[in-house]
Amino acid sequence: MTNDATKKPEKQNFFIDTHAHLDMIEKKTPEEVVNEAASSKVRYIINTGSDIEGSLKSVKFAEKFENVFATVGVHPHHADTFSLKEISLLENLIRDNKKIAAVGETGFDYFKNPVPQTDQEKAFVMQIELAIKNNLPVVIHDRDAHKDTLRIIKKYSSEKQFRAVLHCFSGDISFALKCIEEGVYISFTGVLTFPNAKNIKEVAKIAPIEKMFIETDAPFLAPQPKRGQENYPSNVVFIAQELAELKEMELDEVAAATTRNAVQFFGLNI
Ligand SMILES: [Zn+2]
Ligand SMILES: [Zn+2]
Fold it and tell me: How many other CB atoms are found less than 10 A from the CB of residue 184?
């Protein structure tokens, strides 16, 4: 925390929701959601693709809304049908659209996921290679799969073009530091605001803010004050507030730092 009045935080006192699924929101229209975000100082939203249809929609949102960027990719829940055909579809989207900020979400999900591990790994590796080839970062989904996630990260971390974020970070501080050591970023959802999320709060306290983003994962994981409800990008402010408290920083400083990180990492042309 800085009390030095001469050290003014940067002017970027707005937020970026780095991971949301506008196509899965049911109770509001995308227009309403995007406008509400903008009036809550959530100036940009990165809409995440989690299957081919979702990736096509993601690109459409980015075309329609000036303040929305897209990622394209296939989630481990849908990895069983992933093959070269999907890679070429994703690659065509990347080639034709300037607002694609990353490949993903991809990775491992071992929580009640019927998709075989080998299929998940194949889709993950193929999407990492697609990202590297196109000089894009990778949005990694890791649920109950820290060991395998780190193994794959280590396989690619020495490659110059490899950039990755662990979205909805759910590990402990030791895992976080291992990922950061490999150059990987971590991103916090509303889980950070849950009273029982001790491990995640510890990560937020200890890990460097230079390696952090904030996200809603809307419509899922609404932060504590809205827990159980449909989640929206405007709620990313609650996550920023929690992070500010944990790190003993001003909210504006958290906004500036996480925004700067996201703009650089995703190469956002804003
Ligand atoms: Zn995810
Ligand atoms: Zn997601």
Answer: 24
Q: How far is the CA of 166 from the centre of ligand 1 (A)?
A: 9
Q: What is the pLDDT of residue 22?
A: 98
Which ligand has the nearest atom to the CA of 106? 1
Q: Which parts of 18-108 fold into alpha helices (H)?
A: 30-39, 52-64, 84-96
Number of other CB atoms surrounding residue 67 within 10 Å = 16
Is the pLDDT at 20 greater than 50? The verdict is: yes
Give the pLDDT of residue 11: 57
Distance (Å) from CA 220 to ligand 2 centroid: 8
Every domain of the chain and the residues it spans:
15-266
**Topology of 15-266 in CATH?**
TIM Barrel (3.20.20)
Q: How much is the pTM?
A: 0.95
Query: Which residues contact residue 155 at a Cβ distance below 8 angstroms, ignoring those fewer than 6 apart?
Result: none
CA of 110 to the centre of ligand 1 (A): 12
CA–centroid distance, 160 to ligand 1, in Å, is 25
Query: From ligand 2's centre to the CA of 233, what distance in Å?
Result: 12
